[in-house]
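[recover] target loaded
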């Protein structure tokens, strides 16, 4: 693709994700990181993006707010039902690691009265835990990814490497039983998810049925790396295949509120 096509593709990805790093953009467009940096300088000069350390975000922050709001509101009843079932896996005294994601975000109200320690890299999850909630809260800092509204990068990884959790509630852009893979959209986000998996005794994937056989850009784990899948709908054949990977399946109902 020529420079105009490439820059249009960069804008398309930023509008979809909200933020992107140089390495991801280079791999997606098939050019060098230096070429991408030059493209980002051009787009920033046009007022279309804001350059960040290692990447870029959309210049219009209203677009970011709209993007996050849309994701949180999609399949909301299904996500609440999944969160309600997932919360039943938690008991007092546990150390609970919560990943970024719109379904993990819905988990917080179901945990607010349980005496646990919540560790998260999600700005949205942290912000939803009120001062009068019972759980203790530890927020893992780092570089804020405006796509997932969570902290990533070396500082986040360093913090997570010091923590061991009883259970991890994990998010994903998609998962595939056929390809035996869990995916997300960002390389830095993938690194954080991998680290979380390595530091949790039990790994629980929260994924509504729209994520089934859907593939994001970056693979970060295999299906057998998780212990439990909580979803809102799955046919019996896929349930059997998933259980054959030694993964328990919980099919939740929907929640109206």
């Amino acid at each position: 693709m020529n420079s105009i096509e490439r820059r249009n593709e960069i804008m398309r990805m930023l509008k979809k994700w909200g933020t992107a790093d140089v390495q991801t953009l280079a791999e997606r467009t098939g050019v060098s990181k230096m070429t991408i940096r030059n493209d980002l300088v051009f787009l920033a000069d046009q007022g279309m993006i804001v350059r960040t350390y290692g990447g870029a975000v959309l210049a219009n922050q209203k677009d970011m707010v709209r993007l996050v709001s849309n994701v949180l509101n999609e399949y909301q009843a299904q996500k609440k039902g999944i969160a309600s079932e997932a919360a039943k896996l938690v008991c007092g005294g546990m150390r609970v690691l919560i990943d970024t994601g719109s379904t993990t975000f819905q988990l917080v109200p179901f945990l607010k009265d349980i005496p646990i320690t919540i560790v998260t890299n999600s700005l949205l999850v942290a912000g939803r835990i009120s001062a009068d909630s019972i759980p203790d809260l530890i927020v893992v800092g780092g570089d804020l990814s405006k796509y997932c509204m969570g902290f990533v990068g070396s500082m986040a990884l360093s913090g997570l490497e010091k923590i061991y959790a009883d259970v991890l509630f994990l998010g994903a852009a998609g998962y595939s039983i056929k390809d035996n893979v869990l995916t997300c959209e960002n390389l830095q986000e993938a690194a954080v998810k991998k680290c979380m998996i390595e530091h949790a005794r039990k790994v629980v994937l929260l994924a509504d049925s729209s994520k089934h056989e859907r593939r994001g850009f970056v693979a970060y784990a295999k299906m057998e790396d998780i212990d439990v899948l909580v979803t809102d709908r799955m046919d019996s054949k896929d349930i059997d295949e998933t259980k054959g990977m030694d993964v328990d399946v919980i099919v939740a109902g929907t929640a109206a509120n």
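[recover] notes: The two ends are 47 Å apart (CA to CA).
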